[in-house]
Amino acid sequence: MPKVDLEAIAQSNATGYPPHLADIVQERWYRRLSPALGLTDFGASHVVLKPGAWSAQRHWHENEDELLVILSGQAVLVDDSGRTLLEPGDIAAFPKNDGNAHCVINEGDADCVFLVVGQSVNGPCHYPDVDMHENGAGDKCRKDGSAF
Amino acid sequence: MPKVDLEAIAQSNATGYPPHLADIVQERWYRRLSPALGLTDFGASHVVLKPGAWSAQRHWHENEDELLVILSGQAVLVDDSGRTLLEPGDIAAFPKNDGNAHCVINEGDADCVFLVVGQSVNGPCHYPDVDMHENGAGDKCRKDGSAF
Question: Which UniProt keywords apply (chains A, B) (predicted)?
């Protein structure tokens, strides 16, 4: 039956960030929908941001379009243009390679739930605010290429 | 700014269905987000189903994964397994080529708003309940291949 039973899909707060950059995503709880549901054309995740949690370090992708829709709660979108409140039903789009680093932060008292769609494949990812880079092969390193 | 201004994106109720199959989608008002927002990895649409409207004739795609999330209102998902109520935050997934024809119908008194993600490319689409077929090149015809 196509209605998704979210409870049946494992939820994780795992991150590839090094410990000193990972505090902000410790309460980002996500479910990877596409592998669980047999979808291969795109990657979709259901994400619960607990109060105080960030979706990610502020970043932009060279090779991956992203689309996000808020399902419940609120989050502040932070990007090069400033801060923008997102509420249920609000959509944000991040075209690949636009150089506009972004993240969303739950600054409220309730959970923020959103759905995010991207590609299943990885690619280089840039983090302007912190000394981290993702080369697209899955491993994160310092901007000079050295390992954490 | 990545927050999407929906009002700035054209809304349409256009359909490629022949007139005798199109009544049910006349009050399906959609915005094609991906071309408006510069996204090319996947196709995303914001859809308002007025009371009584269907998302489509019941169908399944050979080459296109679909994912839908309800943003407000309610809809009944109809597929080979029966009828399932969808409410805000509910997600439904339709893997390509699974042969499970589906649609959602707004049987309520309020608008139903959803976001749906698929591919930007077309492909064959099957409609088990009506004499229509989509060969993937954009033109719909009868099941015997004849034109409407």
Answer: Metal-binding
Distance from CA of A21 to the nearest CA of B (A): 24
Written as one letter, the residue type at A122 is N
Contacts of B71 in chain A (CB under 8 A): 69, 71, 88-89
- Interface check for A105 against chain B (CB to CB < 8 A): the answer is no
The answer to ipTM > 0.90 is yes
Q: Is B33 exposed, middle or buried (0-12, 13-18, 19+ CB in 10 A)?
A: buried
**CATH number of the domain at A6-11+20-140, out of 2.60.120.10, 3.30.1360.40, 3.30.420.240, 3.40.50.2000?**
2.60.120.10
Residue A115: its chain B contacts at CB < 8 A? Answer: 69, 91, 115
Q: A91-139, pLDDT tens digit by residue?
A: 999 999 999 999 999 999 999 999 999 986 678 999 999 999 998 877 8
The C-alpha atoms of residue A48 and residue B128 are separated, in whole angstroms, by: 38
